[in-house]
Amino acid sequence: MNEIKKASIIGSGNMATFWAKCFFEHRFPLKSIVSRNQEKGELLANEYGAEWHSDYPDFEDDEMVLLCVSDDAIENISNNILCKNILHCSGAISIDALKKHQNRAVAYPLQTIHADYPLGIEKIPLLIESTSSNQALQNWLIQFNFNMQYVDSNQRLKYHIAAVFANNFTNAMLVLTQDYCYNQTLDFNLLNPLIQQTFQRLENKNPSEVQTGPAKRNDLKTIQKHLQALKEEKQMTDIYQIMSEIIRKRF
What we know:
alpha/beta; Rossmann fold; 2 domains; elongated
């Protein structure tokens, strides 16, 4: 992998904004933003001192091209551009999607990324994979202070699955809880101290150490009362039964 002296980003969404902000904060040159969405692309380019292009420009030998696009678009875009160094940021897509390019890499932030994410990137695990010299890639990325971890595509996919369970599914459970509270005229905000404590305890304990509830206690009477009260809520009943059985078997 050649020495990287500048970067270009294809995309203008949350991931593109995150990397543009990262480069700006660390005074690393951002050459261009490539985006079919002119409004978002120009706005991002103007904010971080880059050029906006609606189509692929001529990428120079000393720049890294980051594909900050949807998973479905990565391989197609990779096959349609010419560059010396290319990198995608997906958790679920193999590095082989970039096989047209000799110097290819993946840098997947193991974090929910949104446009207004406060940097603090030294706390973000960045899962790295490269077919070229890992040292060259590390020399480029080390200036941004990520917590870099080298994993292959199969390991990265498994981390992505774990992230879905830990983050996406957990949040979806809270959405379901909020809907239930609304339908039952309950105040969801009264649960906030409980929710906050749940995650605060995980800062210095393993999840298995803080598990509580009727299923862990094998309190079948309470479980049956809950299921009876949920009899009109089929989706919640199904989830309650599945999760209770998982907890009872685990603990």
